[in-house]
Amino acid sequence: MCVLIALVGGIFIPNNGIMALTLVVLGIIVGLVNITEKETTPYLVAAIALIAAGTAGFQILDPITRPLSVGTRVENILGYVGNFVAPAAVIVALKSVWGLAKSQ
Questions:
Q1: Structure confidence at residue 104 (pLDDT)
Q2: Which helix (H) or strand (E) holds 41?
Q3: 15 in the Ramachandran plot: left (φ > 0), alpha (ψ -120 to 50) or beta?
Q4: 3-state DSSP helix/strand/coil % of the chain, to nearest 5
Q5: Which of the 8 DSSP states describes residue 13?
Q6: How confident is the model at residue 102, as a pLDDT?
Q7: Taking Cα atoms as reference points, which of 84, 83, 80, 87 lies closest to residue 10?
Q8: What is the pTM of this model?
Q9: Phi/psi of residue 18, each to 5°?
Q10: How large is the angle between the packed helices 17-33 and 2-12, nearest 10 degrees?
Q11: What's the rounded Cα separation, in Å, for the pair 18 and 2?
C-alpha cells in the first residue's frame, strides 16, 4: 500500500514534505510491527536495492520524454519509496543487531 502511495505521490505530488513525512512515519510503523525475524535479510537486501536505484540519475531520460518528464517522475517515486523503506530498514537492522547481541 505504501509503495502505491509513493507511486501516486511521485507522479502527482512531487517534493512534498507532508507526503515524505507520512511515508517516514509509515516506514517506522512497518519496521516496528510488520517485518519478522525470518524476513529481515530479504527486506534489508530489497531496501538496499531500492535506495541504490533511487540514486541512479533517471533525469537523463527527460530530454527523450520531454513532455512527460519520465526521468524526473521516476526519481520522485523512488525518492518517496526511499522515504518509506529507509526508516523501516534502520529499525529492522537495529532489531537484528540487538537480537545478535542478545544471543551472544
A1: 65
A2: helix 40-53
A3: left
A4: 75, 0, 25
A5: S
A6: 84
A7: 80
A8: 0.89
A9: -65, -40
A10: 170
A11: 14
Cβ atoms < 10 Å from Cβ of 63: 9
Angle at 46 between CA 42 and CA 48, to 5 degrees: 120
Instruction: Give the whole-angstrom CA distance, residue 11 versus residue 43.
Output: 25
Low-confidence ranges of the chain (pLDDT < 50): none
- Contact between 90 and 31 (Cβ < 8 Å): yes
Closest to 26 measured CA to CA, from 3, 51, 59: 3
Burial zone of 5 (CB within 10 Å; 0-12 exposed, 13-18 middle, 19+ buried): middle
